[in-house]
Amino acid sequence: MKICGHDYKVTIEFADGMKREDDKMWFGQVRISTGVIILWPKAKRNVQEESLIHEVIHAILSHSNSKCEHDESMIQAIAGGLYQLGVGRFLWNIAKPKKVK
Ligand SMILES: [Zn+2]
Question: How far is the CA of 75 from the centre of ligand 1 (A)?
C-alpha cells in the first residue's frame, strides 16, 4: 500500500518490542525507514484492523512535515472512530497483510 506516496508492506508476525509493557500489549508496529507495518498474529481480526489504522496514522504523521507529537491516546481514539466507519476493512483490502513465520 502507499502511504503519503511511500510504499509500505503489511505483515502479520511476531516482532521485537511486541511484549507486555506496563500491562499494555502493543498490537502493531510501524517502521518508517523500511516501510513496514507489523501486526501481532495473536490479535483478533478486528483488533488487527484497528491496529492497522493506528499504524497508518503514525505513518501519515511521520511523513507530514508537521512537528506534531504522536499522542498515543489521540491516535487510538481516531483509529477507533475510523474503525467504526469501516476504514479497517478498507485498508485491509488495500494492504493485503501477509502472514510471516
Ligand atoms: Zn501508536
Answer: 7
